[in-house]
Amino acid sequence: MSSSLATDLNLLSSFLAQPHLTTPQPADCIVICGSSILHCAETIFSALQSNPSLCSTLVICGGKGHSTSYLYGAIARHPLYTHFRDEIEGWTEAAILYKILSQCYDPASIAAAGCRVLVEQKSTNCGSNAIETRKLLESLGVPTPKTMIIVQDPTMSIRTFASFQKCYGDLTHPPQFFSFPTFVPRLREGGGGLVWDVPGVEAAGLWEQERFTDLVIGEIPRLRDDEAGYGPRGKGFIAHVEIGGEVEEAWARLKRKVGGSR
């Protein structure tokens, strides 16, 4: 693997993460989408622990999908959570994240400060994360948020953002959405291959590199607004995403070098 491979992976990774925010910011609603990258949820839980008035509503969303097994694995490997690895087997992603919140943080003090914590357990993908979050908020009479922060695995951040845009696209005044993946995955050359280069994030809590490469390569075709993609001209799952030529060129080089899904 060469440094050019790292350059192309990092370019795609930055595009897919789409970090509008680099630190937690106040918002009407923060949505944490379940994934195996526990750093995302932990960042928000820690921020709320320090500043419970950060948001009025926190939605932890995620049912059981095709990647839920990776979350079970992440729990089993985590030094603070491995003791409940057997208990959470078969649970939804949202239920697992809520258990982390309830056991390792102080949700009572967060709620006492006025932050309502909701758990959504029906969604199974990025699109249904958005749909089921909106259904849950509306069913409980929560006014449409003016600002909404979307916290998602960085490899799926831009797609999830576009899913929320699509979901609320019928409103005259939809929420103002912000992506906050909590970090942007980066790789560098080292030790005869590629190693993670993400300050502040433990490498043990990240993807296996083969899976990461496959996720990154597989995401671009989904985002394309063509007959095969998820955009308005294709399946209609997401709002239009503009993919620049530099991103497409990097994707093509990666496909030639390593293959990957799609």
Question: Can you give me a brief rundown of this structure?
Answer:
This protein is an alpha/beta fold and 262 residues long. It is built from 9 helices and 7 strands; from the N terminus they run αβαβαααβαβαβββαα.
Please outline the helices and strands.
Blueprint: H1 3-17, E1 27-33, H2 38-50, E2 55-61, H3 68-77, H4 93-104, H5 107-112, E3 116-120, H6 126-139, E4 147-151, H7 157-167, E5 176-179, E6 187-190, E7 193-196, H8 209-223, H9 245-258
Parallel strand pairs: 1-2, 1-4, 2-3, 4-5
Antiparallel strand pairs: 6-7
Q: What's the number of helices?
A: 9
Instruction: Write down the Rg.
Output: 18 Å
What overall form do the CA principal axes indicate?
globular
Largest sheet, in brief, is: 5 strands, parallel
**What letter string, H or E per element, gives the SSE order?**
HEHEHHHEHEHEEEHH
- Please give the number of β-strands: 7
Give me the side-by-side strand order of the main sheet.
3-2-1-4-5
Structural class: alpha/beta
How many angstroms does the end-to-end distance come to? 21 Å
Q: Share of helix among residues?
A: 40-55%
Strand content: 5-15%
In the predicted model, the low-confidence regions spanning at least 5 consecutive residues are none
- Rounded average pLDDT: 95
